[in-house]
């Protein structure tokens, strides 16, 4: 099994956030910080100790790109979880992985493996 990773989860819909947290746990990782708005997410992005982040693109009508920028400045990997397409992302962030909602457990596993390709649990393609 891959090392247990710590996850920063940003999602404004409480039920979706709980479902995603459950999936992260099911994959053997753990959520160490959660936020549902850009203000809180920005604070956590700079202070929380996490291995990677999962970001919803639109938080209560506000785009998450300032949070993504802070995470990128820390050198932490992240992916977007959204029902939107990459055209809504700032151009510099379009190269980031996008997990399409509704999210399936296998899709999340593949995305995490792509962020951490050196983990021993990565399945061959």
Automatic annotation (TrEMBL):
User: Record's InterPro entries?
Assistant: Bact_response_regulator, CheY-like_superfamily, Sig_transdc_resp-reg_receiver
Q: Which UniProt keywords apply?
A: Phosphoprotein
Annotated Response regulatory domain ranges read 6-116
Annotated GO biological process: phosphorelay signal transduction system
Question: In terms of domain of life, where is this protein from?
Answer: Bacteria
4-aspartylphosphate occurs at which residues? 56
Looking up SMART domains in the UniProt record yields: REC
Q: What is this protein called?
A: Response regulator
């Amino acid at each position: 099994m891959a090392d247990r990773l710590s996850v920063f989860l940003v999602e404004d819909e409480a039920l979706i956030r709980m479902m995603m947290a459950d999936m992260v746990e099911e994959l053997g990782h753990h959520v160490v910080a959660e936020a549902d708005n850009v203000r809180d997410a920005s604070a956590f992005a700079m202070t929380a100790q996490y291995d990677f982040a999962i970001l919803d693109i639109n938080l209560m009508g506000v785009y998450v790109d300032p949070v993504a920028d802070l995470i990128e400045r820390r050198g932490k990997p992240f992916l977007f979880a959204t029902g939107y397409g990459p055209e809504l992302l700032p151009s510099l962030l379009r190269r980031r992985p996008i997990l399409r909602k509704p999210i399936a457990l296998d899709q999340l596993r593949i995305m995490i493996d792509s962020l951490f390709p050196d983990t021993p649990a990565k399945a061959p393609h």
